[in-house]
Amino acid sequence: MAVFDTSVKLTFLGGAGTVTGSKTLVEINGKRILIDCGLFQGIKDLRLLNWTDFPIPPGTIDAIVLTHAHLDHCGYIPLLVKKGFKGPIHCTHPTLDLTEIILKDSAKIQEEDAERANKNHYSRHEHAEPLYTVKDVLNCLPLFVGHNLNEWVIINEYFKFEFLNSGHILGGAFVNAKAVDKTIVFSGDIGRLNPMLLYPPKHIKEADYLILESTYGDRLHQSENVKKELKEIIHRTIKRGGILMIPSFAVERTQEILYLIYQLREEEQLPKCKVFLDSPMGINATNTYKRYPDWQKISNYELDQMFNEVYFINDMEQSKLLVADKQPKIVLAGSGMIEGGRILHYLNSHIDNPEDTLLMVGYQGEGTRGRAILNGSTEIKFFGEYRKVNCEVQHIDSLSAHADYSEMIEWLKGFRNKPKKVILNHGEAHQTDAFRVKIEHELKLEVFIPKMMESIILK
């Protein structure tokens, strides 16, 4: 008689030693479930991993469970499907809607970048190709299955799970899984304990094992008055006749900035200027927020009013005219880490103007243009050329959708039965190790930090 094996094997195919490419493979008695399927971003060595063969045959994976719609958690899905994955992709209903928007935008940008590189001959390859196309995205969409929070989903006889609100972005969720006789919680990304628009992260009472992100494992968010700081930056920029350029993540950060601007307008503290959202993905994501008011703690009235006096720019020709226009204004445009999208066209026209301001409003990954600028680089390269950074550069860090280490420690204290082991991923090496020390010191929990492609057996 065969002996039933109750062990669970976890292999970290991404998101280990880095904040991108999140992929955790769960293996139980020959069954395979992938938690998140993210794209590697940032430094070249990481980006090149997207082009390598997948570590296992994608067709052998039974299902994907998706924590939320950010590209570093969902962006590899079209490639995995192209390479043979045919199983269901489980996520919350808002995540399903947002992932479609984000993947289509990602594919469109890749197609445009490849076309521009070929046209202007600045690719190192004879012919630049996108990682995947819009057609590839359309091919993967039928595999998505939407679920409600607190709904138990049975993958197979060994693995079932429920989604619990993580407070990170609209639709973001923890995965609370029952794997044979073990309770395993995958945090995905954990939100602030008091998010601006969303409900706070769900407190979980027990788990045998916890796979926990560590993006801000070595940092505390500043406790400044965000609205006041934003007001001062807006006033200073508009007063000198400048343009405030905000490279903004289309999901959550864009909506939070627009909510703050709405509050300033209602309080009559906003100078006379127009506000533009020049991001098709940001516009589509904003419309998705309107469809899910129950996920948000602000009133339906506020949700309606905050977008009323914002000019939505969908058309590329309108965008070109807006880029050329030097009138004082506020412009939100993707991408949040300045890795692509329409923000590059604004920088192309305005980065050398000291009257203008570039405002960063979120985490800037290693190797991104945003991180380089925050670290003091005086030149950045885009469209095949280096450009001097002469505009004013500002950063509001506390708008991050990620909990800092003190908030994550506070969340961990909510466990009634402490996990046997906390496994830290989704963080750069120094962040993860600093967080390990804090958890071990303050909570006396055993902590493990996996390396890329490393496996661990849970018994």
For the largest beta-sheet, the strand count, sense and barrel status come to:
7 strands, mixed
The number of distinct β-strands equals 22
Task: Indicate the mean pLDDT.
Answer: 94
Beginning-to-end CA distance, first to last residue: 21 Å
Indicate the proportion of strand residues: 15-25%
Determine the number of helices (DSSP H or I, runs of at least 4 residues).
Answer: 14
- Compute the CA-based radius of gyration: 22 Å
Q: Portion of residues in helices? A: 25-40%
What is the 3D form? Answer: globular
Note poorly predicted spans: none
Side-by-side strand order of the widest sheet: 6-5-4-3-2-1-22
Classify the secondary structure makeup into a structural class: alpha/beta
Give a quick rundown of the structure.
This protein has helices at 44-49, 71-74, 77-82, 93-120, 134-140, 226-239, 253-266, 280-291, 300-305, 316-324, 343-350, 369-374, 405-412, 429-443; strands spanning 8-14, 23-28, 31-35, 63-65, 89-92, 144-147, 153-156, 159-165, 173-179, 182-186, 209-213, 243-247, 274-277, 310-312, 329-333, 357-360, 379-382, 385-388, 392-395, 421-425, 447-448, 455-458. It is built from 14 helices and 22 strands.
